């Protein structure tokens, strides 16, 4: 090599991958001058490091289709055994599909500025329908992730009463991974459908925000615990009344079909049909779901149960069902909690329902059981048609629906509407009181208008007597005449089932005599056996 100074060499204005470069490499105490190509130098320096989409030709100018460049980068990562793909703070338009197939790849953005339009940070721009922008599939894709980026779709319809979104498919599809793919700090701005997960357990979504139009997240065939946390759907793109009213009729923030033990927490949705929709598929329904904190604002339904056999728990849920810019009027048919399926078993710790046209809670189907510890219903029955806060459908010949209230509900501003509707074989019961360590309890049963509430004995024993006792010299008082049931001699109930109970027994020619059970036999007041 000549002694020409580096500063005297001509500039390489357009270096190529094959250009040779001199390098001085230390070997022991003796430096050795060697040569390498630009490609070889890059490979050596960047081995096991993240790759950047711009290294594979992505323009990031919001105009060119960067889908092929992103796919080329993912293919290179697949050949190297996976890794992280960096997206700089640019606008990447995608007009062709990108598939992460059987390789673990992290799509790492540079953050984003919340707002109605693509701004600072990493933005994925979509203006073409008919394809899925990102698909994760195959066993090897487990452990992949999408982080710190925003997605924006273009909708050109005029914002008037006929507005509807452009019918884009899901942005992200996680299919047949059988394991986890994570989404963290993702912003869906004016997105028709966001994330779809099928046959892939342990889905993990954290810090998902945006404005969605048809579905935010849909999950099916998730046979291991999925987690959806810190979800916030709000009008980031537009607060136009026509758009938000379309959402109130059509948007389901989270749709869960066959999910086993899904954890939901810190879930908020504004202007939607439902915040959590528990639907079904050919694979089944959601069981053992857990919702920690939920808030449905300007939503037709807070939680909507469609599938049969749904089971789960809700710790805290607040719902408000007003029509957007409707001067306080509620949405037609709105309910805080709606059960349309059958044989659901749902427990609720704290439930507040406000602004419902008719019913705060509506239970259809048959065989449903709803347990609510603390219930507050505000501003229901706004039609003033006598709608009950709690509507329980008559199941006909099917198993009756049941509601158990752990504490007396607060029912306010309902235009005189009752707690429970009439004309149903459903039952609403309140306050089963049992001291700790006991087998039997007192159950206070509510009733629909026109029916009498009751106090009943319940418990594990086959026969449970009900004892009323005053304290000290106090008396048991009745504010109205006490009615003692009457039976014919041939229709006497078993005495063992009515210990120390009084009845009237027909004694010929329309006469009745008082009889008492000693737990074994019915006897007349003189002690003789009724016969």
From TrEMBL:
Domain of life of the organism encoding this protein: Bacteria
SUPFAM superfamilies: Pectin lyase-like
Domain Rhamnogalacturonase A/B/Epimerase-like pectate lyase intervals: 52-114
Protein name: Rhamnogalacturonase A/B/Epimerase-like pectate lyase domain-containing protein
Gene source species: Caldovatus aquaticus
Taxon lineage: Bacteria, Pseudomonadati, Pseudomonadota, Alphaproteobacteria, Acetobacterales
């Amino acid at each position: 090599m000549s002694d020409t100074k580096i500063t005297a060499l001509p500039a390489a204005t357009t270096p190529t991958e094959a250009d040779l470069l001199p390098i001085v490499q230390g070997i022991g105490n003796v430096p050795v001058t060697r040569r390498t190509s630009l490609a070889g130098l890059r490979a050596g320096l960047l081995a096991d490091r993240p790759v950047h989409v711009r290294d594979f030709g992505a323009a990031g100018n919001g105009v060119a289709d960067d889908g092929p460049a992103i796919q080329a980068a993912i293919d290179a990562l697949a050949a190297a055994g996976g890794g992280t793909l960096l997206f700089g703070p640019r606008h990447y338009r995608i007009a062709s599909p990108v598939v992460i197939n059987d390789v673990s790849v992290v799509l790492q953005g540079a953050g984003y500025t919340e707002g109605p339009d693509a701004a600072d940070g990493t933005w994925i721009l979509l203006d073409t329908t008919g394809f899925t922008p990102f698909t994760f599939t195959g066993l090897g894709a487990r452990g992949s992730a999408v982080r710190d980026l925003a997605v924006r779709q273009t909708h050109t319809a005029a914002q008037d009463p006929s507005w509807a979104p452009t019918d884009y498919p899901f942005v992200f599809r996680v299919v047949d991974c059988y394991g986890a793919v994570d989404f963290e700090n993702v912003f869906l701005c004016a997105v028709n459908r966001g994330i779809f997960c099928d046959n892939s357990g342990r889905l993990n979504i954290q810090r998902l925000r945006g404005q969605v139009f048809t579905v935010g997240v849909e999950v099916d065939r998730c046979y291991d615990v999925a987690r959806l946390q810190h979800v916030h759907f709000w009008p980031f793109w537009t607060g136009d009344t026509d758009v938000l009213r379309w959402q109130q009729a059509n948007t389901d923030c989270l749709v869960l079909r066959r999910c086993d033990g899904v954890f939901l927490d810190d879930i908020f949705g504004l202007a939607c049909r439902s915040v959590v929709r528990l639907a079904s598929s050919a694979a089944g329904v959601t069981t053992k779901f857990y919702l920690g904190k939920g808030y449905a604002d300007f939503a037709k339904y807070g939680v909507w149960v469609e599938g049969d056999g749904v089971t789960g728990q809700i710790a805290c849920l607040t719902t408000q069902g007003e029509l957007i810019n409707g001067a306080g009027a509620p949405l037609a048919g709105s309910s805080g909690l709606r059960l349309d399926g059958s044989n659901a078993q749902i427990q609720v710790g704290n439930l507040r329902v406000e602004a419902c046209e008719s019913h705060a809670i509506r239970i259809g189907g048959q065989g449903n059981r709803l347990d609510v510890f603390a219930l507050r219903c505000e501003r229901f029955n706004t039609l003033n048609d006598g709608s009950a806060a709690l509507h329980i459908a008559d199941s006909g010949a099917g198993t009756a629906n049941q509601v158990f209230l752990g504490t007396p509900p607060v029912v306010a501003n309902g235009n005189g509407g009752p707690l429970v509707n009439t004309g149903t074989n459903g039952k609403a019961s309140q306050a089963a009181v049992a001291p700790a360590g006991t087998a039997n309890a007192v159950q206070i049963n509510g009733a629909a208008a026109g029916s009498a509430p009751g106090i009943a004995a319940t418990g594990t024993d086959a026969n449970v007597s009900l004892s009323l006792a005053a304290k000290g010299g106090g008396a048991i008082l009745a504010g109205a005449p006490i009615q003692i049931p009457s039976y014919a001699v041939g229709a006497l109930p078993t005495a063992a089932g009515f210990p120390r109970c009084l009845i009237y027994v027909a004694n010929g020619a329309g006469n009745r005599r008082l009889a008492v059970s000693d737990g074994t036999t019915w006897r007349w007041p003189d002690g003789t056996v009724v016969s």
